[in-house]
Structure formats: structure tokens, C-alpha cells
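We keep the chain:
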Amino acid sequence: MSDPEAPRTAPRGKRFDPIPGWAGVGTRVVHVGRLPDLNAGAIAPPIYQTSTYRYPAEFSEAAAGGHVHLYTRITNPSFEGPTEVLRDLEGGEEARLFASGMGATSAVLLSLLRSGDEVVALQDLYGGTTDILHDLAPRFGIRVREVSASEAAEPERLVPRGTRLVWLESPTNPTLRVIDLRRWSDASDAAGAVLVVDNTFATPVNQTPIALGADLVVHSATKYLGGHSDLVAGAVIGASALMDRIDSKSFLGAPIDPFAAYLLGRSLKTLALRMARHNENGARVAEALSHHPDVEKVHYPGRHSPEEEGIAARQMRGRGGMVSLSLRGGAAAVPRFLHHLRLVQVACSLGGVESLVSVPGETSHRHLTPSELATRGIDEGLVRISLGVEDPDDLLRDLDEALRAAHPPTAAL
């Protein structure tokens, strides 16, 4: 058994400063990945804005130690700190950064799958992921079987032997259904499949899928990990044996930019603080609006059913800052509601310090037909809110006033 007091060290001989084993997540996001002795003692890491590096005379010896840099498409010192933080938080053996979440997703799918393979994928996924599975995968002879969130309650029936890969999100986008990751892990293991979990909505502060049996974790780091709506990035974390098979630089050429990596490393230092407020605001808004006369339904992790509440209580440490609302009045109420918001801004994306609202049927899931939207529980009055870190009372007032303005009382006859 490992000593909880022992320093936390990186695998494969990385040079990061050791962090005490007893350090909590709020401390680790600040201190994991430190390399001051290699950066002239700088507390804030520099940005290595270079495309290439001097070829060392001792190349073979340096390469064997894993410390040589050749070309920024392959490695850059700016990547090292945030990569190590994410590896540590998610509990994986290795992590890699990408130019975007879609870059990370594409790298996983194109590296691990080949013609004739079958993928089992949750139906309720981010629209870009669905696009790849619907449009790109079949061109390479890859079969995709979709599973609805309701069917997902019995994964043992859904993952036959020979399945190559399983792709899940929990909570789902945009209806925030909660999937039992431990049970899916067991079913995937029994079938010999690789289980990939998109952990963008939860973040490793609220949920660690690898600890629940997932093989790989994918993030759109643009969202909560970046947290300020000023960078685009992606990440994959997992076991070394799988990570070695995932191409991020050579063929696909999707590395993160050094400046974006610097911004991501800076943002990760406040991730625990930000998620605490996102969690608080999500819980406050979900509870308050569940009783609002102008809201037909509140979508929030665990609210769909007692069974999902039990799963969320077991596998999540916080429920996050995402809340979706089905407005009374359907499609007619949506533009009026959006128009009357004053603090919450109408924009796609999520996870920033500012609150944003979007209409999934017109943004992330615009490629789906009306019947496909309905099958996924995305009704015409559904809006998705990413609650930022503003004062919760201010957000509640803004949402309440916009809802009431969208549903003016009927004039007396």
C-alpha cells in the first residue's frame, strides 16, 4: 500500500517538484507541475514561443531520458506544467494537450479504431462528437451503435464482445443525464472494449472517471479547465499503454499553441476555487427555478430520477454549473427570454467565469432533425445555461426577470 504522506511524483522520470501526498486538490492545482529550477527560478512559467530547438550533440543520451525537444508540433516546455496538472487531477499515467477538444476527440478515435471495428456511443453527446461518429467514422468502415440515455441503465446488454470502443459523457449534453460509469466500466471490460469518458462538464474536481474504471478521459479544455473564454484547447488522459497509441502530433498535427498552454496552466491554478462557485450557482439556480411558474422542467444532474440521483451521489463530488431549462410556451418563449437577460449573455460554449446561455437546437445540436432532437429530450423550449461565478442572488434575479418578461400575463377580457 502506498504511503499517503509520500510525495506525489510524475511517471517516466519527469523532473517536476514533488508535492506532498497529503495535499488536497486546491493545493495540487497550484503546485503540481512546478519546474522553477529549469526556468531561471521563475514562479510563473515562461512561454517558449519557438518552433524548433538546437539539436543536441548528446541526442541519443538525452532522448533516452525523455528530456529532449525537437519541434513544437511534438513537444514544447510550455506544455509540461498544465499536462502534469491534468494527469495528476484525473489520476492517469500520462496526459496530452491538443489544439481543441475536437482535436483530442479525433486523435482518440482515429488512433484507436480501424476498418471493421464497432463503437458503442451514448446518443446524448456533444454535437461535434456525434458529427464525427455519424459522418467520418463510416467512411473508414467503422460501425457505430448509439444508445439512448434510458437504455444506458443496462450496459451489460449493450456492449457485446468484440466492441472496440465505448464513448460516454456524464453528465450528458444538454439534458444533463447521469450515467453509471462504474457499471459501464465493468461492461466494457467484460467485452474487451476501451471505455472513453468525456469529462468536460464535470471536470476532475467533481468527478474522476479513471477512478471509476474508465480507460481514457477526454476534455474540451476550452471550457471549465480554461475557464475564462479566452483559449481553445483539448486534453486526453489515461494509461501509458493507450496514450502511446494516440497520435497527437505526427500525423494529425494538432498540438496546442505555447501561449494557449500558458493560459491553460494559469487557469488551472484557480480551477478548484471556480468549480466551488460553479457548483454553488448550479445548485441554487436548479432548486429555485424548479418551482418557477414559467419553467416546465429543470435539467440538472440527478434530477431526472431517484436512480440517477443515487448514481450522482456516488460518483460526483459536485454537480457543476450547467442547468438546462424547458420553458413554458416552447419555441415562442425562447427569444423573449433571451432578449430580456441582462447579466447572462447569449453565446455558445460554456465553463467560463461569465454566465452564458445557448439554444442547443440552434448551436451544438443544430445538425439533428426535429425528431432526433425530440428523441434526445431536446424540446423546442430548451435552453442551456452555463452558470459562471457571479453572485448567485444576482443570477437568480436576472433569470427570474427574463422568465417573467417572456411570459407576460394575459390581459383581462
User: Anything to note?
Assistant: The first strand starts at residue 94 and ends at 98.
